[in-house]
Design a protein that fits this description.
The structure holds two protein chains of two kinds.
Chain A (H helix, E strand, L loop, with lengths): L23 E4 L12 E12 L6 E12 L3 E6 L5 H9 L6 E5 L5 E4 L11 H11 L4 H14 L15 H14 L4 E5 L7 H18 L2 E6 L2 H7 L2 E5 L6 E6 L11 H20 L3
Parallel strand pairs in A: 4-8, 4-9, 6-7, 7-8
Antiparallel strand pairs in A: 1-10, 2-3, 2-5, 9-10
Chain B lengths: L1 H14 L8 H32 L9 H12 L2 H34 L1 H16 L6 H8 L3 H25 L3 H10 L3 H38 L8 H10 L3 H32 L5 H4 L1
Helix pairs in contact in B: 3-11, 4-5, 4-7, 4-9, 4-10, 5-7, 6-7, 7-9, 9-10, 9-11, 10-11
The chains are: A alpha/beta, B mainly alpha.
Chain lengths: ~280, ~290
């Protein structure tokens, strides 16, 4: 179903969040990004998504436009109900948009969820191998690639363990290996570390950063954790809730390695929190 | 590298060392722990039986365990009972295999094809609630009294439960796994083969177990009702003993039926436990 343009409410203009030191407000809504000379990996143009019909009709996403450049790490934050997961489903091709365009230029897209979603009847190794098999990788090559992928997420010795024998962080790393097995150019991550303890999460941030650098991955990372967004993102996009609209976009300056407890991350997180609070206040929460 | 070490440290903390092989002493204790409730149950039954016998209730016909158990022992040394067990178990195997085939094929079709689901879903549930013994008049008219009639009723009894187990399993495939499977590129038949069917296994095993119980009941009822030419099965022995007012013989056959039922149930329970253990669906505290 495609909505005509008239039905799509144009994005309400928001009073811009004043640029605070440490980060520059890149733009309000609109197709921007610091793509520069890099090519665009993901382009959403005025994307809307409605669920249901009639009185139960729910507008989940409303005219969302954003771009992600090749190799860029973009975080999307927003309060619950901002349609973050819907957005990823659209990019992953698991769902159809009601209006607008989603373009990934034929790139392979991998998706990770908050739950590892491993198949409990298969060992860690077999879980990864199944993804390779689904890609049509011949049997002979699968074993070696599985081993490499598990090494990549530092689980080389755990190929024969079943998911329930692994800790939450390890399961999530197997899920990461499985997503990498798809040879995805674009990795979509839906609060992948949301269910983990802070210690494990910090370590996995480092791991994710390393893997992205090694493989020049493009990442679209959804979270509700402002610190996580500030820690990981090259750019942070703030979505409003019900319906989801892009209300702000921040470039995160990068001076060498970042840590979750560094001052610049804290400053960025503070800005994001303020912006989110403002948005929630608008809803009267 | 620091991250590497920290991760390995965390991993080792969380996974712990696998439990070593159980020593023979622990194995013996395990067997004892599994066996004593069953032994206690047998002792309780014998005690109650003996007490009832001693009260003199139905004195003319009701014999105590002191008379019946030696009869059972003698029976065990005759070829007749073993032959009957053989005949019955052969029928059981054939009828059950047929029920599994029918149940599985119908279950798969119904789970996969929505119009079939709409048409047959409620019929399958209805069939499950139908006492299978009610099929015998129908089966005897259709097939005449014989093994075919019994096999038919076993299928009618067992297949719906098996189909229902499979359908339930397919329906309850976690949506998050389906999303993961689709992201991987699993579609259509491969999605079924690698995701939906393995995910349905626990419910399917439960259906198989229930299907066996229904098929087994149908079989014994059939052997009681349908008069078959040829070597007698356990049901036929029961029938003969009843005609002869042979309390000891009837009770002995019932005990044999009970033992078969318990043994087969144990096999299914073990299969069920194995499936659930592999998936981490057992409470580790309860499983140990």
């Amino acid at each position: 179903m495609r909505l005509s343009n008239e039905q799509v409410t144009p994005p309400a203009s928001q009073p811009g969040a004043s640029a605070l030191p440490g980060a520059r407000l890149a733009s309000e809504t609109g197709i921007t990004g610091r793509a520069g000379d890099r090519s665009i990996a993901v382009r959403l143009t005025e994307v809307s998504k409605t669920y249901g019909t009639g009185s139960s009709r729910l507008l989940a996403l409303d005219g969302v436009s954003l771009t992600v450049a090749d190799g860029e790490f973009v975080c999307i934050i927003g309060a619950s109900g901002c349609g973050k997961s819907t957005l990823l489903n659209l990019v992953a091709g698991l769902d159809e948009s009601s209006g607008g365009q989603v373009d990934t230029g034929g790139r392979r897209v991998g998706l990770m969820f908050q739950e590892p979603a491993l198949f409990p009847w298969l060992t860690a190794g077999r879980n990864v191998e199944l993804a390779l098999r689904a890609q049509g990788v011949p049997r002979a090559a699968r074993r070696e690639q599985t081993r490499e992928l598990l090494e990549t997420v530092r689980l080389g010795g755990f190929a024969d363990k079943r998911p329930h024998e692994l800790s939450g962080g390890m399961r999530q790393r197997v899920a990461m290996a499985r997503a990498l097995a798809l040879h995805a150019d674009v990795l979509l991550m839906d609060e992948p570390f949301g269910a983990l303890d802070a210690m494990t999460r910090d370590l996995l941030h480092d791991e994710l950063e390393r893997i992205c650098a090694e493989r020049t991955l493009t990442v679209l990372f959804v979270t509700h954790n402002v610190r996580e967004a500030a820690r990981l993102g090259d750019r942070v996009i703030v979505l409003s809730s019900r319906p989801g609209r892009v209300i702000a976009e921040y470039d995160v300056p990068r001076h060498g390695a970042r840590r979750i407890d560094s001052a610049e991350v804290a400053r960025m997180a503070g800005q994001l929190t303020d912006r989110l609070r403002e948005e929630m206040g608008r809803h009267g929460n | 590298m620091a991250t590497d070490q920290a991760l390995h440290g965390l991993d080792n903390l969380e996974v712990g060392s696998g439990a070593g092989g159980a020593s023979s002493g622990r194995a013996a204790r395990k067997i004892w722990a599994a066996a004593w409730p069953k032994l206690l149950a047998i002792v309780l039954v014998l005690v109650v039986w003996q007490v009832v016998h001693l009260t003199g209730w139905k004195k003319l016909v009701l014999k105590g365990p002191g008379d019946v158990l030696p009869d059972l022992w003698r029976m065990a040394h005759h070829a007749l009972i073993w032959q009957a067990i053989g005949v019955t178990m052969q029928r059981a195997a054939l009828g059950y295999v047929l029920a599994v085939i029918f149940g599985t094929v119908i279950g798969l079709l119904v789970a996969r094809i929505p119009p079939l689901r709409a048409a047959l879903g409620s019929i399958i549930t209805g069939l499950q609630t139908m006492p299978s013994i009610a099929w015998y008049p129908f089966a005897i008219i259709l097939f005449t009294a014989g093994t075919d009639a019994i096999l038919f009723v076993m299928i009618m009894g067992g297949a719906p439960a098996i189909a229902n187990g499979l359908i339930t399993g397919v329906d309850y495939t976690p949506p998050i796994l389906l999303r993961a499977g689709r992201t991987m590129g699993l579609r259509g038949l491969t999605l079924y083969r690698y995701l939906v069917l393995p995910a349905s296994l626990p419910a399917y095993v439960a259906g198989l177990k229930q299907g066996w119980a229904f098929a087994w009941r149908s079989l014994i009822a059939g052997e009681l009702i349908v008069s078959i030419i040829g070597p007698p099965g356990l049901g036929v022995l029961l029938n003969t003993d009843e005609s002869n007012l042979d309390f000891s013989g009837t009770t002995s056959v019932i005990i044999v039926l009970l033992i078969i039922g318990i043994v087969v149930d144990m096999i299914f329970t073990q299969a069920d436990l194995a499936v659930r253990r592999r998936r981490g669906l057992l409470d580790p505290a309860a499983a140990s």
